Amino acid sequence: MRTLISSKLFKLFLLFFITPLLLAACSQPQENSAELRLPVSINEVMASLINHSADPIWIAAWQEPQTDRDWRELEHLARQLQIGGSLLTIPGTGPVDKAWTDNEEWQGYSQQLSSAAARAVNAARSKDIELIGRAGDEIVTVCESCHIAFKPDLPTMNIYGELSPTASL
Ligand code: HEC
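Above: the input record for the complex with heme C. Below: its predicted structure, written as tokens.
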């Protein structure tokens, strides 16, 4: 009898105290799943998105886009670079990604890249080759500054394609 009562009490205890606690624990947002992660490394973003979309902006400063279609393509690429800059603020699968994205200076360069690329978007929209050149120079300055700060051991020269004459490299 005694064990029956205590087992009943135990069940009640489970029902009223433990179960709500468990439910509360389950409904807490999981920290890991809330943390945003890119599916690839920042190095991959750099090679496949940043470098890829920046090149044609620099080239355009030398070889002016001819058709509406060319300008439109340039606008899309500049937009990709703008988005790419913002993606650099989110860590991916690379071993040092988190350390980079946690760094304030890194965040600053990423935002600057995004803003300079937004200016290239506007320049392409208004088909203004001088503004494209200016935005291209701003972009290369940000690439260069971030590389000097965060990857000084890797060579940076010759990866930028063609630069406009006023580029500060
Ligand atoms: C916020 C900092 C930052 C900015 C801005 C930045 N980079 Fe990088 N970039 C890096 C770092 C760090 C690496 C090295 C990544 C690694 O080794 O994992 C890198 C690597 C690269 C690589 C080498 C990728 C490879 O695997 O060969 C290229 C190419 C590159 N960046 C181009 C650019 C260009 C072009 C721009 C500007 C349009 C730019 N980067 C802007 C930080 C930056």
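Notes for the reader.
Residues 43, 46-47, 50-51, 54, 88, 94, 106, 109-110, 113, 139, 142-143, 146-147, 150-151, 159-160 surround heme C (CB under 6 Å).
The chain has two domains: 2-32, 38-150.
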